[in-house]
Amino acid sequence: MRKSAPGRVASAVVVAALAASLAACGSEASGGSGESGSSGAITVTDDTGVEITLDGPVDRIACLTMICVDALTEVGITPVAYREPLALDERYAGPDADMREITGGFGEENVEDVVLAAPDLVIGLAGAQDGLRDAVEEAAPLLLVEPTSWQESVDFLRLVGDLTGTEEVADEAADAFTERVEHLAEHRTDLVTLSMYGEPGSLGVDTVATPVGSLLAEVGEYPWDGGGVDDPFAAIAVEQIAALDPDVVFVQAFSASSDTEPLAERLATDPQWAALRAAQDDRVVEVEASVWATGRGTISLGIVLDTVEEELGLHA
């Protein structure tokens, strides 16, 4: 059964039912396969309020953001182009996937790479890649998304199913992930957790207005709401963490170097950090920054849950 959670992702998906019905009737009358019912126009309003119309389901999609790669992997489609190196991980498209790399800085991607991939649709991150719209749409429509909860990540997966004609596969994966979260929520812990990232002196936290933060709030105590600020990825000081004194802290070190010292070790010299319950109990867990910070989709959130289940003992 298809479940749906309200969210801003896929705030409006309208398949041209009349056209599809007429096409289906024509197909049945002529003895066709009946598949033409999925060939009607598809209209979607993205998270910036822009309405995009496709002639029908597409499978040539360029991904400016990892949630796009994540969702396409769930439905068995390889993107024609990718931006994040994580896309080449075997858990996603894989190292041998036939995809074009999109070069350039974040929010300043090389549009020529997108054009050369010849996509029918480009999916990017709202609030970061908005400025690319005019240039990208010379090649293909640009759909911008910005999930602020795990439910909206699930909604996006369903949207990708609608856009690619893989609704059944998308729904199955979406339902399975939702059921997993609901099951864990029934056995939630009273341990206080925190997901944070950055460098000493420049730390941030996943608030409850992020996919990871909202997921942690489902399975345990997650008191970080951002203090009323608009940015869901809020700045945080060690003093604020000490006030919460979490039982378990998941930390992500952001660095271009693979041999960077773990964030927890760099924070260990701070007396307030060392006094934390999590630090004293050796429950500061270094996690994959690329998955936790940029994944956003259900595969990535499933990997997050694997770690969370293990660390919180949620095996009921």
From TrEMBL:
Gene3D superfamilies hit by this protein: Nitrogenase molybdenum iron protein domain (3.40.50.1980)
Signal peptide as annotated in the record: 1-26
SUPFAM superfamilies in the cross-refs: Helical backbone' metal receptor
Residues that span the membrane, as ranges: none
Transport recorded as keyword: yes
PROSITE patterns recorded: FE_B12_PBP, PROKAR_LIPOPROTEIN
Superkingdom in the source lineage: Bacteria
InterPro entries membership: ABC_transptr_periplasmic_BD (IPR002491), Bact_iron-sidero_bind (IPR051313)
Cellular location(s): Cell envelope
Sorted UniProt keywords: Signal, Transport
Family of the protein in this entry: Belongs to the bacterial solute-binding protein 8 family.
Descriptive protein name: ABC transporter substrate-binding protein
Species, as recorded: Nocardioides imazamoxiresistens
Biological classification of the source: Bacteria, Bacillati, Actinomycetota, Actinomycetes, Propionibacteriales
